[in-house]
Design brief:
Helix content: over 70%
Structural class: mainly alpha
Number of helices: 6
Number of strands: 0
Number of domains: 1
Largest sheet: none
Strand content: under 5%
Order of helices and strands: HHHHHH
Length: about 120
Amino acid sequence: MEYWQQYFRISQEEVWLRIVQSVKPLKPEFLRISQSNPDLYGPFWIMTTIIVLVSLSGNLARFFRHWEEAKFEFRLELVRYALVVVYGYGLIYPTLLGILLRFFGSKLSPIVVLILLI
């Protein structure tokens, strides 16, 4: 657990500074702030919020499509599909990119690549 604790130490001021700097992600300040203290809270909550929004919008679209019939069923499998797609893309792609970068001699770890891409 000690290894993972370093990725969950972040203050509210750091989160606010990252949000402000993420508007201009190509500036060196964004990379400096993100690399000095990487966190995993941001990527987790961003992907979880996207999953909730995608599954909710899918079910709402089905509701409005069957508006006249007054027959609506909440499809839980839409949540499962959104979970697989979002976490699959959000975790597998940065991890593979981090491994590829490490293969070519970069000093970025796959976790830092995950944090920077999300």
